Queue: 2 jobs
Job 1
Amino acid sequence: MVPLAHRLVAESTVARKTGNRTPDEEEQREATVRRLDTLGYRVGQGLVERFSRDRPRFTDTLDMIKFLCKDIWTIVFRKQIDNLKTNHRGVYVLTDNAFRPFARMSMSSRTEAVLGAQPFLGFPCGVIRGALAGMGINATVQAETSELPGATFQIRTVGERG
């Protein structure tokens, strides 16, 4: 999956290096992130179907998020999420201080590295959304990175009462 993401992002990065972006290049970049998100969504749904069937039913949303952080994240990225925070009102913040797809990423400047890393966050956002959807939770996921190789994912459950 990472080679596909790399190829899709590389195609959109060529235009960025020229210095001036046209609306078509922005649309292509957004389409790339949407495609990675969709791929991740399908992967997340499939993983939940396969690995949650032998478990007892989850009692609440926090248990589902913990399953995502421990089990699903380990399957996809070979490590658990480093930190999980919640406000107990439907907002969860997952922090991965050593996000594997960013481990070997380097650019000439810190700003360029952070901008170059943003498209790679589409796939894990999709994995999170798909996994939660497979467990019956409708959520929106936003990702950001301020310093490589870390990544932060904010999950907002939709229609949830806390």
Note: The beta strands are 83-86, 91-96, 139-144, 151-157.
Job 2
Amino acid sequence: MADAQEDDRALEERLKSALWYATGKAVDEETMRLGINATPQFIGSLSELVWAQIENVAHDLETFANHAGRRTIGVEDVMLLTRRNEGLETLLGQHRDAIAVRFADEKAGKKRKRDSAATTATSAGKAGGKAAEKAAAGTGKAKGRPKKGT
């Protein structure tokens, strides 16, 4: 039990460090573009603010999924979370719709390939079916077994 808690704490620290690093890089890029400076304290404060926001979002998403009787967070939970931010809701809605269209296209493409392969196999089977029947009759084989008495 203590090992699991230590592992969780260590993971959280690694994630916070990665967030701090990513925040620092983003702040450095912006400060260079704008020609201003940012202190390490600002980067630390911004990282803590972002971490707190991530924790709040994660808690809300878990709550939405649990309320719906699910253990897995879904797209509908994320969309529910964005309901008060019209710009984000619009952007994520467009992204969700684009993914749905792409998924439908891929599914239709797989079906076309499957139908095409089945048509090709059926055509080949009809063309080669008579020859295969004659060959099987001539060798006396049915389903790969020799006839009795041969």
Note: Residues 139-145 have pLDDT under 50 and may be disordered.
